[in-house]
Write a structure and sequence with these properties.
mainly alpha
């Protein structure tokens, strides 16, 4: 390969990387904005949020979902580039998992065993599993549009990562409305809702992100 050709390819690759990063950033902002508007205009935030923010369980719920949203979204910026290094950012996903596991263990340690089931079921499990995917729809669509400007090695995995990020964003928003604060509830129903979005992202990615 001639030197001029090599320089041209490198310049073209740099342009694609810049364009993809910008598109993912736009998708992230648009997805968050649309989901936030949807949350506020429909169910709104919980009425006692000012008081609830003083409790450890609410801070954990918001913090853990926010960490997941940030970690997964940062991975979306990498996943659309062929041969991009994913290990370091992928390991960040262990942080919210560790937070949830620690909170569940703490809850089961301090609370009597006969209360575990009630805390896990909560009062709004069905609505939680339904509404988090609804809130995740806008960021998922936006991420898919952005990733179509890239060249992901594994379209299904890329879609799943986009779904995970979208589910994390939606869960972090829904946490401001949800009155079920037990880590057992979060670990069960939030995880299920995010898994649904991640699975949807996987199948959407296989279909839409092939190149």
């Amino acid at each position: 390969m001639k030197t001029d050709d090599l320089i041209g390819l490198l310049a073209e690759d740099a342009t694609v990387r810049t364009k993809l990063g910008r598109m993912v950033a736009y998708a992230l902002v648009a997805g968050i904005a649309i989901s936030a508007i949807m949350l506020i205009s429909t169910i709104g935030m919980r009425r006692d949020m000012a008081d609830a923010m003083e409790t450890a369980r609410v801070l954990f719920k918001i913090g853990a979902t926010l960490v997941l949203a940030i970690a997964a979204s940062s991975l979306v910026f990498q996943i659309g580039r062929p041969a991009a290094p994913l290990k370091t950012r992928g390991l960040l996903l262990l942080v919210p998992l560790a937070l949830v596991a620690a909170a569940v263990i703490a809850e089961m340690t301090v609370m009597p065993a006969d209360s575990w089931r009630t805390r896990m079921i909560g009062n709004n499990a069905r609505f939680c599993v339904m509404f988090i995917p609804v809130l995740a729809l806008a960021p998922l669509v936006a991420f898919m549009i952005a990733l179509r400007n890239g060249a992901p090695d594994n379209p299904g995995l890329s879609g799943a990562v986009a779904g995970l990020a979208s589910g994390g964003i939606a869960a972090a928003m829904y946490a401001w409305h949800c009155a079920d604060d037990s880590p057992l509830f979060v670990a069960t129903w939030y995880t299920l809702a995010i898994a649904i979005v991640t699975t949807a992202g996987y199948f959407a990615g296989r279909r839409l992100l092939r190149w």
